[in-house]
Amino acid sequence: MEQATAAVIEDFNEPLKMRSFPLTPLGDGEVRVRITHAGICGSDVHIWRGHDPRAPLPMIPGHEGIGYIDEMSGEKKDIFGRTLNPGDAVLWERGVMCGDCYYCTIRKQPALCPTRGTYGISYSCEEPPHFLGCYGTYLHLRARHPMIKLDLDVEPEVLVPATCSGATAAHAVETSGLQPGDFAMVVGPGPVGLFALAQLLHAGAGEVWIAGTHADRSRLEMALEFGAANAFDVDTMGGDEIRECIMDKTRGVGPNVILDCSGHAGVLPQWIDLTAPGGTYSIPGIATPQEEIPLEIFRTVARKNLRLQGVWVSDTSHLWSAAKLVANGAFPFEKLITHTFPLEEATEGLRVTESKESVKAILKIMD
Ligand SMILES: [Zn+2]
Ligand SMILES: [Zn+2]
Hints:
By secondary structure, this protein is α/β, with parallel strands linked by helices. It has two domains: 3-163 and 335-364, Quinone Oxidoreductase, Chain A, domain 1; 167-310, Rossmann fold, CATH 3.40.50. The protein has ten helices and 17 strands. The strands form four sheets. Strands 3, 4, 5, 8, 9, 16 and 17 form a seven-stranded mixed β-sheet that branches. The relative contact order is 0.17. The mean pLDDT is 96. One zinc ion binds at residues 41, 43, 63-64, 164.
């Protein structure tokens, strides 16, 4: 059998190893994608550091990617009913949902499917078909998996971050209760935060402010290019000054929507207090187990009619929403990708993601 390579996490915190595995025959309806680019997500760093309870070792990480169809078994159509053929550039849903359960059918929230897995997170590479993450030359997609033939007017690699960060941000904005003209805030200007900023503006927010730490300086500058009306560094402004500034701007009301994309539960008490009564505090950044947060529930939530909104991953509607947002050209998404590495340097990609040297790092696996 033909062999192909992938970057593998064999032990947490150790450099990824290049390994080869056989390309196993496709089952009926399955598709093998040739990966051209894979995104490095903050979640990949958590997996690599051993903080994600879903990840079995050894594994090929990578749940963000694009590529083209290498081989397929039987006929296959994309979500728009267009026939797919080998050589077609495609996007695909990163989550593997059953399509038949209560959450997939009745509640229409496939992100909550109890058997949901994710390519690049949930599967070991030890058993065939091995290639179940995007840090590899191929990805083996199961039968009946949602795919989108790429016909968007944008460089394909610019779409890579849309496949996770962008989709998650779209899910956060959809569930935020945002009304046209609302004042919104994003906390944490990483890829999810920058996508959230763009999605909020696209969805009709009147004004969006964004906050980050001193380490986020270059990301805050990028946020201004994406249309944030104000971007500030919480390490140089005190809590009182931040509150005064926001309350002054909103005539004492506070932000109607805060999307906390920081990934740190510890910042919640500071920001949730600023949320306007009747508003939403949403936490799309929380993707791994974290410490407990004390909340004065009467004053902070109950008395304010506040909506504390969880955002677990996304579904194919959010993927499509994010891809269209990137392709519509109103936001400089091409600037998001600050670092590109070959597959062999995946470990360096994880390192610059962890240190925030990059806004978004991607792996260029082939042309
Ligand atoms: Zn991700
Ligand atoms: Zn299901």
